[in-house]
Amino acid sequence: MKAIIFDLDGTLVDSMGYWRSVSRDFMKTKGIDIEDAVQHKMTTMNLDASLKYMKDYYKLEESFEELFRDFSRTVEDFYRNKVEAKEGSLEILKYFKDRGMKVVIGTSTADHFANIVIEKYGIDKFIDGLYTADSVGHLKGEEEFYLSIADDLGEDPEEIFLVDDSYLALRTAKRAGLIGVGIYDENSKDTWPTIVEENKYSARKLIELKKL
Question: Which domain of life is it from (predicted)?
């Protein structure tokens, strides 16, 4: 294998619980309870897309600009002051980097928020690039997201691992030809059996990826 793409939220940093709660809490202020299916769908979307999706799906009266302003303030505070790196994240990034593989992050999180946490924990020292839905121009739910990264890295999709906690992202990456590696996250434990069943590789701890 020539390269490995790591998801950020729920994979390298422990933030999926926050994303679920902040979305639910935000919508509860509008008298709406978000269904689990909607939550899972939004894991492959960037902030713009998820807000537009919720606005359309729940027919919210506020403008997109108002929703984005209110929501992004809370998100930035979280990434600056509350998010924590997952156990073994830096060690596993260094491990693959030392093996001569191209190590990058592929995330739905906006560049601004992703860079806050990447720099905060020194993740930037062990990666060769950051690819977001914004920078790539495709959502993680689209095969083109992964194909574009593969093209930029100059590697065949079949020579690239994707490490992710989202079964939807893993499914999409597999359709694009990548090798999916499921990683456990407590906040998506309901889909863990599906991840294990559908992917050749899976691990409960990041450090276990050394067995790949």
Answer: Bacteria
Q: What angle (nearest 5°) sits at the alpha carbon of residue 143, between those of residues 138 and 149?
A: 65
The SS3 of residue 95 is helix
Which residues, in sequence order, are bridge partners of residue 201? 181
The residue count of the chain comes to: 212
pLDDT value of residue 48: 86
Q: For the chain, what percent of residues have pLDDT higher than 90?
A: 73
pTM equals 0.83
- Dihedral sign, Cα of residue 67, residue 70, residue 73, residue 77: negative
Q: Which amino acid is at 71?
A: F
Residues facing residue 139 across a β-bridge: none
- Which CATH architecture group holds 3-14+84-211? 3-Layer(aba) Sandwich (3.40)
Nearest to 11 by CA among 210, 191, 205, 190: 205
